[in-house]
Structure formats: structure tokens, C-alpha cells
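re the bet — no i am not wrong, look at it urself. input seq straight from the record:
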Amino acid sequence: MNLKILLSTLIIALSSYQPAFAGANAFVSKSVRVGDNLISILRQNGFTQGERERVLASDKEFRNVYLTLDTKYLLRKTPTEIELRIFDSQTPNAFQIVKNKTRILARRYDPQYRTTVQRVDGKIHGSMLGSVLAKINSNWVATRFMDAYAFETKTGKKLRAGAPYSFLVEKKYEGVHFIKYGEILQSSLQIGNRTVSKHFVRAQGGGVFLDKEDLLESKYFFAPVDYLRIASHFQPNRRHPITKRLQPHLGVDFETPTGKNIYAPRSGIVVRYGRNHAAGNYVVIKHSQGIESSYNHMSKIDPKIRSGYKVTTGEVIGLVGNTGYSTRPHLHFAVRKNGRMIDPLLMMKAYPAKMEAAAQSRIASF
């Protein structure tokens, strides 16, 4: 290539790069404030009620956008146009909203995140949640760290004051702007006299925290979902999030988006299914040894489910939803043994049946 052609190519490259770079830098990063939701952010930026309704009507997922204080959104404003880029805090969903004199564009888009990894070190003083929040101001990160150790039996009683912990967490950027934290990739926590290290093992549609000990567990159940984000634990004395009354929470809530598969954690026979005001769409399965498992708030029960139907381990029985008495899409998973409600985590592996082979392969490389 001669010098003239080389210079021409360079000029074209620079002329195409600079506007893109300038466009990326035209955005400013904005914090989500207490009480904010998509509607309030649109209102703050000059969208009328009719325009807000048009945005919400363009895609049903706009109504499900979940915003938290540790996730940013981007704003580009000129005299003739406003553009917002909104990022769901707990899913990969991202949305572009553009308003000018001639149109309103509202659609999903695929952000090209730049991901870095941050290391955090600390010691447990008081609660695990508070100890992590003291080091990194993100409820998402703190609760994901707790998720990593949810299956350690009676973890809270074995934790000692001053117990060291550490983890590596993803930080996601769009251009120069920090948007949100991603997954905790690795973690370490001293429990008693033992240091327990966990790795996040990704799988299609999900991922779980595991160590080599988890694969040796001979627990009765596999997990009923493929992404274990625990929104609420088994709590005999819990204050209900809607009624505010003391009301037992006799199961575990796995928070995951609407439409995700729910798997039978062990073979059994369907004894009840249907819909009611509190549970929404639900299924109850009877297993061996006097054990029953139940699944509430489903968006859909699989058409094959009926009373007497024999399910196999790992078979899809329905989809995660937000039906019944529920504030967010999740699966309420409960276990009864010989007529008594028990903590499902005490009987459950940290991964679904479909992930067993992949987990064994991944953990062998640790």
C-alpha cells in the first residue's frame, strides 16, 4: 500500500471514529434516586403522561424494569432531542428511549459493556450483609455474596467476629460510564476454622456458586431453578412485605425473571395444581419418604401437568412468574416432610440437575 492510500485510509478511519467517540461522551451518567422508577425518570426529563404511556406500551418489558440505587442510567440532552439509556439492575435488559419533535423511539438494545474486575477484602463485624456494605455500597453485591454461602449449614452460628472475607466482582461500563455491578466471580470466607472458597459457574440461562464440596453433597433435592438469587429465606417469624404483619415465610424465594424454567428437583407425583389468590399458579409434588414440594407464583403451569402425573428429576413443570400475592417475579419453593414445613436449603443441592455435568467439568479446573 503506497503512502497516499495509507493516509486516505487513516483519514477515513479517524473521521468515522471521532463522531462515535463524541457521541458516547455526549451522555452523562445519572444516579437512580430513592423512589425512582422508569415513569418518574421519564417525567423528570420532560415526557408528558401521553408520551410515558407510549413508551410503556411499546414493549411489555418496560413495565418490568427494575432499578436500584447502585445502577446508573445515561442521559443525552440537546436543544432538539432527549435520549435515555436505562439498564435493568438484575437482568441483561437495557432500553433506549429517544424523544424529539417528530418521534418517540423506545426499544430494547444490546449494550456493549466494558467489564473490569474489582477485588474487595474485609472482615465480618456484626452481620454479613452490613460487613460487605461497609466495603462496597451495593445491596446487589452484598446479597450476592450472601447467596454464595446460603447453603453452608448454620453459617451464621459459625461465623466469628473478625472472620476475613474477600471476593472478585464485575464492574460494567458503557463507554466511560460505570453502569452497574455484575456477578461475584470468586469469593472466600472463613467459617469456623475453615476457609470456604466459592466460584460462580455460569450455564446457559443461569449460574450458581459452587465449590468442590458442593458436588459431594448427597442432599435429597436438586435446585428447582438455574439461577439462585435468594430474595427471602425460610423465616418462621417474618414481617410480610405487603401486609407488614408478622407472618411466617415457610419457604425460599428465588428471584429470577418471568418465563424462566422451573424444574422438578426430584421425581414424584403431582398431587395438586391450579390457581388461588395467595399462591397464584401453583403445583404440589409428592416425593418419597413423606416429602412434598410446592411451587408458587408461576406465570404458567406446563400443559402436561395434571393430578397423578409422574414427573422426573429435572423435568420442566412450569415457568417463573408474579401471580398471586407477589411483588416481584420469583419462585416460592417450599418443602414439607411428614406434615412439617422445613427449610428447603437444608435438603437442596446448590445447582439444578441439568447443570451437574457442566458443574463437575468446571469445578475440576479450579
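see?? Confidence is low (pLDDT under 50) at residues 1-22. told u. also The chain has three domains: 26-108, 112-217+355-366, 218-348. so pay up
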